[in-house]
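Quarterly update, task 2.4: oxa(dethia)-CoA-bound model.
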Amino acid sequence: MTLRAVVKGVGHYLPERVVPNSYFEESLDTSNEWIVARSGIERRHFAAEGETTSDLATKAAEMALASAGMTGADLDAIIIATSTADLTFPSAATMVQARIGNTKGFAFDVQAVCAGFVFALTNANALILSGQARRVMVIGAETFSRIMDWTDRSTCVLFGDGAGAVILEAEEGTGANTDRGILATDLNSDGSYRDLLYVDGGVSTKTTGVLRMEGKEVFRHAVEKLAETAHTALEKVGLGSDDVNWVVPHQANIRIIQSTAKKLGVGMDRVVVTVQDHGNTSAASIPLALSVGVQNGQIKKGDLVVTEAIGGGLAWGSVVLRW
Ligand code: UT7
């Protein structure tokens, strides 16, 4: 028998305020046509004044718990992937832990920017396979609207706020790739690409900073590295593109999503796409897309799902799981 980390619940939350592309036309030399053509984004959600990452994460967590038929007290661990935590410390995860009524588990944040959810999911899988936890909630939650340079049209039109959550539980599998649960993971980073995507401030410099990105270069790396990491993870368990029911990619740009799907040999009819409605929500984008995909009736029990993401670092990776 082989231990597997199986998805038992999923949920998401988007702030109430929806911001269409036309909003940026008022203050910047940009247009709805350019944003849609170059990124596929039509709208995004922005958190209200005073609404924080842990607020969004708590709502996503509550929906995931309800869908799993669990309460906060049932969890052994809570991991939040975020680069926009409420405070320098404590972690957003411990804040959510308190709000969902969990006092016996442990909670911590993971920071791998847009690849954060894939990194957090891989860590949760390791905790479960090593017997350190049986039930782990993994949340991706971000308020990237707080780190935008509103005068930089090449970045501020791309990002949004939101949160998504999944609950994993240990279950005995057969060890075959037909098991439900996480089947393979692949993580990578290369810090020599630091200057391609970063925030120009932080605690150690006593500033908050704003996001800076060499969009074209990040785009080039994304197309090359995302297909590669997905292939690597699939190959680890003897699976190929034909076996994939759903690719659930990081939602940064529709052109990256399309190029990666093509490289993977997966038609767009097998890709969950939410970038038009959410924009780039960094670590929240994959769990948001998973939750929306389930809600829409796309992702069903037993489906083979491949998630892949890349972001600042650069850091990138993928997780193959049977839903
Ligand atoms: O989540 C982390 C990973 N991040 C990503 O994956 C993002 C990757 N990059 C991208 O998605 C794309 O590179 C962008 C959407 C950021 C930009 O698209 P692009 O096709 O690479 O455009 P570009 O940067 O080459 O810019 C083309 C032109 C430039 O004008 P010139 O120099 O040709 O005159 C830009 O100044 O478009 C201009 N431009 C804009 N025009 C209107 C840049 N932003 C805008 C804008 N509205 N908002």
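Highlight for this quarter: The chain has two domains: 2-173, 181-322.
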